């Protein structure tokens, strides 16, 4: 399974709407941060194993897509952090973790 990158606020709004029907996971990723690079590796490792097939997986690059990243924080009422993983259900934040807490084990514990 792979993630899809979003770059527009319309794409984000579609994901938020889809969360009413199906879980959505967003990884907010900074392309200049080594901690974020580690979080991306953990996210991709989870997706290589046996990810929850009832969830869609998305990536937002926080520097390149700052308006989208800011809109996510505002819509879900979560403080922006990077890296940050957010699990969305029913148009609301269900779970979030950031920095070194974004691990394959942590993702499995929440999603599986």
Automatic annotation (TrEMBL):
Higher taxonomy: Bacteria, Bacillati, Bacillota, Bacilli, Bacillales
Classification via NCBIfam families: B_thiol_YtxJ
Family matches, as SUPFAM superfamilies: Thioredoxin-like
Parts forming coiled coils: none
Superkingdom of the source species: Bacteria
Gene3D superfamilies assigned to the protein according to its UniProt record, in alphabetical order: Glutaredoxin (3.40.30.10)
This protein's name: General stress protein
């Amino acid at each position: 399974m792979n993630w899809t990158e979003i770059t527009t606020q319309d794409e984000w709004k579609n994901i938020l709407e889809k969360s009413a029907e199906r879980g959505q996971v967003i990884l907010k990723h900074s392309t200049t941060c080594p901690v974020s690079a580690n979080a991306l590796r953990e996210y991709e490792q989870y997706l290589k194993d046996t990810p929850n097939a009832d969830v869609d997986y998305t990536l937002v690059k926080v520097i390149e897509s700052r308006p989208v990243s800011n809109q996510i924080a505002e819509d879900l009422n979560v403080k922006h952090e990077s890296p940050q993983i957010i699990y969305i259900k029913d148009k609301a934040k269900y779970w979030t973790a950031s920095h070194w807490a974004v691990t394959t084990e942590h993702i499995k514990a929440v999603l599986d």
